[in-house]
UniProtKB/TrEMBL annotation:
Location(s), subcellular: Cytoplasm
Reactions accelerated catalytically: tRNA(Phe) + L-phenylalanine + ATP = L-phenylalanyl-tRNA(Phe) + AMP + diphosphate + H(+)
Quaternary structure (record): Tetramer of two alpha and two beta subunits.
InterPro entries attached to this UniProt entry: aa-tRNA-synth_II (IPR006195), aa-tRNA-synth_II/BPL/LPL (IPR045864), Phe-tRNA-synth_IIc_asu (IPR004529), Phe-tRNA_ligase_II_N (IPR004188), Phe_tRNA_ligase_alpha1_bac (IPR022911), Phenylalanyl-tRNA_Synthase (IPR002319), tRNA-bd_arm (IPR010978)
GO BP term (any one): phenylalanyl-tRNA aminoacylation
Entry cofactors: Mg(2+)
The protein's name: Phenylalanine--tRNA ligase alpha subunit
Record note on cofactor: Binds 2 magnesium ions per tetramer.
Family annotation (Pfam families): Phe_tRNA-synt_N, tRNA-synt_2d
An MF annotation (GO) of this entry: tRNA binding
Length: 344
């Protein structure tokens, strides 16, 4: 039995020394030290030995097991180190080679304008609210004083999914939802940026998908002068401190009175040019005092609360601010176009 164990030891150690990779070494470990290995078989057969032989054979078997395990561990360390050295040689980096330039991105001009407008109104105490782009007819129209069959609905040629579900045509539904959330108690002071959809024919100034930013303020003692003052601050911050605004009467079903808002031309300083079409003024947004019906439908007492609302198209503002002549440039993802706005 001793000779058999000694032979197994010498045989295992020889194979360990000749092993050239970790997989081969693992197979040797299983072959000699595994549950079905010859050393384990010897230990299982010790019951057949005499009492005098058992301690000697047991001690020898354990000693041989430890020797083989130790050699395998030592060989494993050598092979792992050699493998690492080989990888390092294969993956050597020539630090003298010139590096590849890292191209950094920049804000899309439209996104830059949206964030600039958001920052401006957040600084004035507004919060940013968002809502679903797939909207119900009630919030998109009825809650905004546009009942079914109202002729003003034709102004917003809509993408209907069902009779009651459509792609929102403006971000005003966010205002209606937010007013409901306040449960008839002011103040409310929000802006609502987001995508909107209308069945427009795409051309240089129109798109079936575009963005809007709408604002809403509801509280006690809100007046038209508050709206005018807010829009003056907005125009001066966005287009320059020497800008002026003017309000022209208009009609929107959800505001009364309603106005169109013009800003003095920043290109020609009101002298007349191609940007302002010779008028000295550029239309930038629509606004007005919130219609009492809209307040009442949202649960507000229209005798106690008043408010104003305004809405603008960031595409139009970006086109004016950066001299962009075609709205489609915003959506074609032409890198040559986007590279022009690294400082935007």
């Amino acid at each position: 039995m001793q000779e058999e164990l000694t032979k197994l030891r010498d045989e295992a150690l020889q194979k360990v020394r000749e092993a050239t990779d970790l997989k081969q070494l693992q197979n040797i470990r299983v072959q000699y030290l595994g549950k079905k290995g010859p050393i384990t078989e010897v230990l299982r057969g010790m019951g057949k030995l005499s009492k005098e032989e058992r301690p000697k054979i047991g001690a020898l078997a354990n000693e041989i097991r430890e020797v083989i395990a130790g050699e395998i561990t030592s060989k494993q360390e050598q092979l792992e180190k050699a493998e690492i050295e080989k990888k390092l040689q294969q993956e050597t980096i020539d630090v003298t080679l010139p590096g590849r330039p890292v191209r950094t991105g920049n804000h899309h001009p439209l996104q830059a304008v949206i964030e600039e407008i958001e920052d401006l109104f957040i600084g004035m105490g507004y919060t940013v609210e968002e809502g679903p782009e797939v909207e119900t007819d009630y919030y998109n129209f009825e809650a905004l004083n546009l009942p079914k069959g109202h002729p003003a609905r034709d102004m917003q040629d809509s993408f209907y999914i069902t009779d009651e579900i459509l792609l929102r045509t403006h971000t005003s539904p966010v205002q209606a939802r937010t007013l409901e959330k306040y449960k008839g108690k002011g103040p409310v002071k929000i802006i609502c940026p987001g995508k909107v959809y209308r069945r427009d024919t795409d051309d240089a100034t129109h798109s079936h998908q575009f963005t809007q930013i709408e604002g809403l303020v509801v509280d006690e003692n809100i007046r038209m002068s508050d709206l005018k003052g807010t829009l003056e601050v907005f125009a001066k911050k966005l287009f320059g401190e020497d800008r002026q605004i003017r309000l022209r009467p208009s009609f929107f079903p959800f505001t009364e009175p309603s106005v169109e808002v013009d800003v003095s031309c920043f290109k020609c300083s009101m002298k007349g040019c191609h940007v302002c079409k010779g008028t000295g003024w550029i239309e930038i947004l629509g606004a007005g005092m919130v219609h009492p019906n809209v307040l009442e439908m949202a649960g507000f007492d229209s005798k106690k609360y008043r408010g104003f609302a305004f809405g603008m198209g960031p595409e139009r503002i970006a086109m004016l601010k950066y001299g962009i002549d075609d709205i489609r440039h915003f959506y074609t993802n032409d890198v040559r176009f986007l590279k022009q706005f690294k400082q935007a």
